[in-house]
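Example complex used in Figure S2.
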Amino acid sequence: MYPRPFHYHRAGSLPEAATMLSQLGDDAKLLAGGQSLIPLMKLRFANPSHLVDLNFVPGTSYINEQNGAVRFGALTRHSEIENSSIGVRFPILHDCAAGIADVQIRNRGTIGGSLAEADPSGDWAAVLLTQKTEIWCLSPRGERSVPLTDFITDAYTTVLEHDELVREISVEVPGKGTGGAYLAFKRSAPVYPTASAAVQITMEGDICKDAHLVLGCVGLVPVRATAAADALRDRRIDDKSVAAAMDAVREAVDPQADMRGSAEYKRTLAAALVKRAIEVAVRRARGERVEVSHIYA
Amino acid sequence: MPETIDKVAIQLKVNGKPYSLAVEPRTLLVELLREELNLTGTHVGCDTTYCGACTVLLNGASVKSCTMFAVQADGAEILTVEGLAKDGKLHPIQKAFGDSYGLQCGYCTPGLMLSTFQLVTKNHEPSENEIRKAIAGNTCRCTGYQNIFKAIRLAAQNMKGA
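Predicted assembly (459 residues):
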């Protein structure tokens, strides 16, 4: 399948890419990993007249830790995060990176592209919404940082201006006594999940001091289940509080029926994933090493 | 298409051989390999980033060549199935797929062998689970995968000696 013809522009730097976007107008799109954009262009759902390729910009793929935060260059590939040592100390990042699609797609797809696309079924936004995440954005007018909580405004929609791009993603490293986990269920490896659950839980003894729960694929944007978090906070994590959190998740999500399942099925799936993710997050908060990743046949 | 689209000059190495070409931006890497370079061992299966029949190595990393523009391979080294055998001698991975009957119709096999290449060059003793993960992006509709697993384990052994 051929995409519509387009003009190809290779950016040498990120400021140059932003300038190109502003000069080329609304019909120009950025090309990062291309694992969503290129299939959309082949199906002619997306028909940009100009593509600005970011892949030749040096220094856009990195994982640094500074002042208690991990910083990802926008073009850091999922596979680089999967194979990085950061996943040992910050396992929720590994849960996500190692389970996105398949090896080939992880070798190309980027964390910045995933966030900027804001696909309701994307993995990174759900995961990073349980963390303190800042998106550093660059345009010809300069740079600004936007908390991820304000970054995605609707399905496939972010606060990025037309000539603005993601330069870096900064995620605060959680302290001791807190654990996170991400679980997604998908029908087979290369596809988007049917539902996903990201959880970050802070424990003090047997009591949950803080909780963040975010569900993916079950709304136009990732669903922050604050009532579910309230059901856990200042309580013991036991069958009763977890059941209350699961009920709150069923209430909070707003899934669409599609070929992946009915709305009711997805509601049940999201609650089940939350239950499992809470279990793993609590064990990790206690310092246990637990490996989890996407679940698929 | 009213306006003309400029072709883009690129240089790349495919199976060790250097090429200088001018490509239309919308040309996919797999089309360049098959239509321009006549390397038809790389297959197009689903054409929607699912099946992995078009898998090639780009600077050593497996990619789906139907989901990358040829212009993006500028400066890269590509390995396709045609680059596996040397001097008329099958590559240990090819030999393993043959010896283990790790194929039936053969359509998915070039992609599977290149996914295997990425796995076994780093890991000579892949576990069942590591093999599963490594080929999760390659769909075979004939074999049921059992012999493919055998082939990959044998390939890893063969590569250990190599």
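The longest strand of chain A covers residues 195-204. The mean pLDDT of chain A is 97.
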